[in-house]
Hints:
globular, 5-stranded antiparallel sheet, 11 strands, mainly beta, 1 helix
Amino acid sequence: LNGYSDWIEEPSLPQSMPDSFTLRTWIKLHAYPTSAYGMVAASYGGNYKGWFLAVSAEGKVVFLGTKAPSVALWLVASPVLALERWYSISVTYHRPSGAGVLYLDGVARSQFFLPGMEIESNRPLTFGRSSWHNGYYLNFAIDETRIDPVARSATGVAADFATFTPPAPVPNPALTAEWTFTNQAQDVSGNAHHGSLLGTQEIPGVLG
């Protein structure tokens, strides 16, 4: 999706959106949003009814849950997403308890409590653009997206993440090679200049 005119729209799902759910998607950012947010998925009416999953201009995952007449709960998950790298994002919401969790790559990053979160049934579900007006586009790739009618447990989200092998990183023409030595001697530039550790000893390194 190109970030200025491309989006995906599904008009019928909001009418059958379950009260409790797990949304899982894989995304790869091509560029950070030029506005405050770029929408990954949105089922929101701009009226304190619904929710959206987005990426902020700083590159962090954001989830908004709402409840009429005026409750808006914002979650922000660290770390900053790198460009041209695949990430798995999951959101779970259990309506009876009001408990929700935002996951990144199978790990819980932020939790929230919002009993009675409103479901917006009069707007389409959109990917890559706002559901309530023509804006908040996101320049990204999206894959393997699903909505389950249950709030998965942390174990269930981690198990689902483990069933995928993220695609190899895109080669970085600005680098020949980069070894952080936090992942053995793997080249993290995407150019596949991987090494091997032979008779080495680990000591505390540089923080950064």
